[in-house]
Amino acid sequence: MFHFLNTAEYVDEAQKIKTPGTLITSACKALKADFKIAMTGTPVENTLVDLWCIMDFSVSGLLGTTKEFAKEFQNPLKNSETDVAQLCEALRNKIGIFIKRRLKKDVAKDLPEKFDNAQSRIEKQMPPVQLERYKVEMDRAKNTDMESENRGALILKSLQAIRDISDHPYLADKQVLSYPSNELVATSAKLQILLDILENIRSKEEKVIVFADRKDTQKMLQKVVYEYYRISSSIINGDTPATKQAEGKIKLSRQQTIDKYQSVKGFNVIIMSPIAAGVGLNVTGANHIIHYSRHWNPAKEEQATDRAYRIGQQKDVHVYYPMAVADFDSFDLILDRLLARKKALAASTLYPTEQIELKLDETYNSIFGFNAESSESPLSTSDINSLQPHLFEAFIAALYSKKGFNTHLTPYSNDKGVDVIAFKDGENYLIQAKQSKSVIGNDGVQEIAAAKHYFDAKYGLEFKLILLSNNDFTSAAELLAKPNKISLVNRLLLERMIIDNVVTIQDVHKYEAMRMKIV
């Protein structure tokens, strides 16, 4: 006897019905059909319950109720000792013939080759400036109390700092765009690798996408590319409108930006955030991919690569991973190994895409589990001129601490006009720290003068006032400071203090970490 199907329901992009109870999920499940097919490239994004919901649409009841499924498959993932591969294999066996998986290589027979292998990892020794800053950060992290209630935030901060330094040593503390490109390249292993790769691509008259997630890194890359190749690289990140309708009058949408980039004949460079470029964009005009900064989630990184390696690509695609290395296992090497493991797990199981992302603890323990002794170099006047503004304030706090004061950094906002409070028996100061490329006028004088009454009353002490800068003061500022009894510390006086009191970048970060929440 034959059974003829009267109705069939097909759902493409089925990850959109992954959440039980949503309007779109309920609407799709409410339709009556003899046969249902759900098609998706990401059956599991956040949790295994995503897969349950899609399967409940296709073959209702196959995996039981949500509660039963969560108990058997989702909840065990919360236990770090669970064998994830075995668990996901059991789930796959339970689904059986009702899931069909085909990879891009199985269906897109006409796609050219993608070269993403051991040769894609290009290593270079860190220059001395980068290596020293790296070791200082390693020591700082190891000397931080990670057992506090802020453990998660401290671990994340350390990991972000060491990743920034691996990309470029100035990204962690300094105003990176204030440096000339030749100095930026000379002090970063990965920038040197990047230029070697770009030179090879230029010789072939081909196009490249450079992925980096931090905006400061993107702007640094844009600056270097322009000064070396006179190419004004577009940047696609969260600030770039996603659609033409949202673009407004000034900014192009993401795909419009890509179209403009692809319309240029021959060599061209575009810089993208892997998140902003994650889905929906077509960049088949490029056949070189450089992951300058690695994403913590290998699935997101793969999605970024697929902006170029997709149907419509006519050339072989080459993927590159610049890696800053040293005479020990560096951040880039360790991260690459961790990501490779996660990627292999995802390829062989129905592992949740979001959970492929590296966990803070496992990454931290892998990165900071070795001894890299540093030599702490004192910060020079040139160094402090290029510090990020909030770290310049932390430098002043550390400097006065070296002079014997008990110093406190005020909050980022609502600081009442004071950046540093310095206490010492019979000699207490309120300090306004002005980092500037221009001479300081009356504003700084007025700010610190207005703060005195509040702090005198709050602490029951008589504070003296200091206005300090890495620059000089106008004659008007000097005139206004005298009747208000404000001591002015200009560039020359600050330089003398720096010579007499050694402050390192570790000292700066120590005081920044202790910044007050409220005054």
Structural class: alpha/beta
Distance between the termini: 83 Å
Number of helices: 20
**Can you summarize the main beta sheet?**
7 strands, parallel
Mean pLDDT over the full residue set: 88
Count every beta strand, where a strand is a DSSP E run of 2 or more residues: 14
Radius of gyration: 28 Å
Principal-axis shape equals: globular
Q: In percent, how helical is the residue content?
A: 40-55%
Low-confidence stretches: none
Percent of residues in beta strands: 5-15%
Please, could you describe this protein's structure?
This protein is α/β, with parallel strands linked by helices and 519 residues long. It is built from 20 helices and 14 strands. The chain has helices at 23-30, 49-58, 66-74, 84-95, 104-107, 128-142, 151-167, 181-186, 189-203, 215-229, 254-263, 298-305, 331-348, 360-367, 381-385, 389-402, 442-459, 475-481, 491-500, 505-513, and strands spanning 8-11, 35-38, 114-115, 121-125, 207-211, 234-236, 268-272, 288-291, 317-325, 406-409, 420-423, 429-434, 464-469, 486-489. Strands 3, 4, 5, 6, 7, 8 and 9 form a 7-stranded parallel sheet that branches. Helix 7 crosses helix 14 and helix 17 packs parallel to helix 18. The longest helix has 18 residues, at 331-348. It is globular and about 95 Å long. The model has no long low-confidence stretch (mean pLDDT 88).
